[in-house]
Amino acid sequence: MEFDFAAEQPKFLMLMYGLIAFVAVVGGLLLLLDVVPSFFARRREAQLVAASASGAPLPRRRKQGEGAFAFFFLLPTLLLLAIGLVVPAIRTTLLSFMDSGSNDWVGLDNYRWMFAEDSIVRVLINTLIWVLLVPLVATGFGLIYAVLVDKARFEAVAKSLIFLPMAISFVGASIIWKFVYAYRGEGDQIGLLNQIVVSLGGEPKQWLLDSPLNTFLLIVIMVWIQAGFAMVVLSAAIKAIPADIVEAARLDGTTPWQMFWRITMPSIRPALIVVVVTLSIATLKVFDIVRTATNGNYDTNVIATEMYNQAFRYQENGQGSALAVFLFILVIPIVIYQIRNLRKQREG
């Protein structure tokens, strides 16, 4: 099949315009970040030199000018947040109170549908299972890894291997694990799990078809990916424990088990909270794994995949928006808890 450059020319022109716009915007921002602070720094330095030479009192910084200067640099971020977050959030909330065509107001009907439809209740239960298991299990494995590899002989290599799944996308990881769970009738299996079962004298099975077992098997993928993140954060927290505290505990005859529960765990508590909160938010939004592994079939749907199905596959804008708003509401308490926890750490 020959490639017709002339027929594809409009696409190449669009790509070129996009690259030029990207370079112009990013280059302009980088230029401003370099030129504007240098200009104000040189002007401030000139004022200080002039005041020192004339014996006049040093000029004070004007807080009003600093505020305007800060707002100048925050403006692009505020605009992007407004366009990419605030406006869509308001629009989605409004759509959640409208019908599928976004024409008539239906009040809370879409939210009543969420808790009245059996299939959607199953989706909410699946999401709850994900949120309860993934943060706790992934953090637990991350903590075990961090403790075991701390100051080990091949610590760097071990951490690299454990963290490696984080470099794989959720889609790539799901494809890898689909091969692990693969089923091929009788005889030799291409799926690792079924081959192990067959070698032990068992019968192969289609693991991703059985509910609720398939949900737990998908959770394994998420834990496999996120355990490396938990390990890195917790390992850094363990290394930050003051050496004098550890030495004093050892001199007092503390056993390794007592050291873990009385020294390590209290010292890394803030890091543990950060990991659990981060993983909880990431788990609430999980989409790629379910979409790639089962496409939400066989009772494996979660809120994010069902939201996508309702809004884009079934053209039910109101119900899809209601699920999106409900997901946002679930995230809010976690974020508030993390903000309060950070404030307490600063005050402490």
UniProtKB/TrEMBL annotation:
InterPro entries reported in the protein's UniProt record: MetI-like (IPR000515), MetI-like_sf (IPR035906), UgpAE/MalFG_permease (IPR050809)
Localization per record: Cell membrane
GO cellular component: plasma membrane
GO biological-process terms attached to the record: transmembrane transport
Keywords: Cell membrane, Membrane, Transmembrane, Transmembrane helix, Transport
Positions of transmembrane segments: 12-33, 68-90, 128-149, 161-183, 216-238, 259-282, 321-339
Chief subcellular location: membrane
Membrane topology, from the record: Multi-pass membrane protein
Annotated ranges, domain ABC transmembrane type-1: 124-340
UniProt family annotation: Belongs to the binding-protein-dependent transport system permease family.
Protein name: Carbohydrate ABC transporter membrane protein 1, CUT1 family
Species this chain originates from: Micromonospora tulbaghiae
